[in-house]
Structure formats: structure tokens, C-alpha cells
Amino acid sequence: MKRTITCIICPKGCEIEADNDSGTLILSGYDCARGKRYAETEMTCPMRTLTTTVRLPTGRMLPVRTDAPVPKAMLFDCMAEVAKIKLPVKPVAAGEVILPDICGTGANLIASAAWELNANP
Ligand code: SF4
Fold first, then answer.
1. What is the pLDDT of residues 50-90, one digit of tens each?
2. What is the DSSP string of 17-66?
3. What does the pLDDT average to over 28-40?
4. Quick check: 94 pLDDT over 60?
């Protein structure tokens, strides 16, 4: 498979050509080792940080994200787990773990923002 991958590691946005048709991954167009690693991962096991929301007991939505990237192929499984979350009525601190080791990925789902009990709904 041949692909052009736009590197998102820095604002330069190098266009990396990837080709694994020969059984060996050949990359060109990257300007640094971080971009090369990014393209290698994109061609083998693409990873993404999951960013979404969880419903608070008040009905408002709490922004959450994983504290590490998870395999892109597992994003729907992770979202299904997120949909099952029922938060207790208690304050939430920014960075608090909402769901550890989501879907066995090793990444924790954490609160991106705090929520106080006496906050507006
Ligand atoms: S390859 Fe390196 S320089 Fe190019 S966009 Fe990626 S991180 Fe930036």
C-alpha cells in the first residue's frame, strides 16, 4: 500500500510518502525522527487520543479525554464504554481518572475540566 501521510507532530506538516508494497516499509519526505516514527505508527497501528464528553448527574456534559493515545481501531469500543459511564454526584477534579485502562488499552479516561457540586447546572 502506498500512502501520503501528513505529519501532525509539528506545524511544518511534512508530507510523508509511505510504501510497504515490497513487504518493507519505505518512508520519504519526513524531516526528523519524530515524523518518521509517526508515519511508521500510522502504517502499522494508528493511535489517537480519544476526546469526548460524559453526562454529569445534572445533565451537563463533562469533557473527558484519554491520557494516552489508544489504537484508532478501538475508538468505537472505547466510545461504547464511555456511553455506559454513570458518574456519581460528587465533585470532579481536572485530571481525575473517570475510567481506568479503557478497553484494556492501558490509557485512562480522565476529566479535562473540573466540576463542582455547586456549579451552575
Ligand atoms: S516530520 Fe518532523 S519536521 Fe516534519 S512535520 Fe513531522 S515532526 Fe515536523
1. 999 999 988 889 999 999 999 999 999 999 999 999 999 89
2. EEE-TTSS-EEES--SHHHHHHHHHHHHS-EE--EEEEE-TTS-EEEEEE
3. 97
4. yes
Atom of ligand 1 nearest to the CA of 10: 8
Q: Which residues contact 82 (CB under 8 A, 6 or more apart)?
A: 50, 52, 54, 64, 99, 102, 109
Ligand 1 pocket list (CB less than 6 A): 7, 9-10, 12-14, 30-32, 34-35
What would the mean pLDDT of 3-8 be, rounded to a whole number?
96
What would the grid cell of residue 32 be? 526528523
Ligand 1 centroid–CA 17 distance in Å is 13
> What is the CA 53 to chain-centroid distance, rounded?
13
The model's confidence at residue 42, banded by pLDDT at 50, 70 and 90, is very high
Which class would CATH give 51-111? alpha beta
CA of 38, closest atom in ligand 1: 6
